[in-house]
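Minutes, project huddle
Topic: does the predicted pose make sense with adenosine monophosphate bound?
PN asked that the exact inputs be recorded in the minutes so nobody has to dig through chat later. Recorded below.
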Amino acid sequence: MQLIIFGAPGAGKGTMAQNIQKFKQFSHISTGDLFRRHIKEKTDLGKLATEYIEKGLLVPDKVTEDLIRHELDMIREDFILDGFPRNIAQAEALDEILQDFGIKLTACVHLDIDPEIVVERLVNRMSCQDCGAPYNLIIKKPKVENVCDECGGQLTRRADDNEETIRHRFTTYHEETAPLIDYYKKQGLLMTVNCNEGILTKLDQVWEELSALDK
Ligand code: AMP
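Predicted holo structure (tokens), as shared on screen:
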């Protein structure tokens, strides 16, 4: 099963990618996580990515596409692409990469969410710096403040989860990423999931639909 997940910031891409693994093991490829790792390790790519991420802009296509080609070249099993593609040019580049590797997509899952819900969700979002488990101070509080329930690691906030950057990330989403809805609809790959009540309430249903497509 080869999946793409996309949606507005805070729709629950990472949460879905992590939780769907209770049904099947996937390689989870998140461009946002890859960039954050480079930033933490202070690589040249990390320095470049920081300039864009802190402004809520997209990291240049060529850099991002090369990163994805490299990641996909290393795996041949089931995967979830989380946060890539993020515009039409990247989607076209991905079509080429997949063709080169002889891979066919199963579905492109669009996580649809009301913008008002999402801002509150983002400013309350935290994750474990060790295992990456996601938390939310309103809907999924850790048992002990700032400590991960799963591994005891420390919870942190993302640097780009502040109101100003969130606003820019939304503009970027609407201008650049939302056109993917039509792009994948035309390819017959689009599956839209309403996430206003959180992706976890929809997980069983999403899995059932994906499994039917995979037959
Ligand atoms: P995410 O973790 O998916 O919310 O991504 C965080 C930030 O990383 C985004 O706001 C972008 O600045 C950058 N980013 C992630 N994926 C991409 C992509 N496919 N193309 C360009 N920039 C990206």
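Observations noted during the meeting:
- The CA atoms of residues 128 and 152 lie 9 Å apart.
- The two ends are 10 Å apart (CA to CA).
No decisions taken; revisit at the next huddle.
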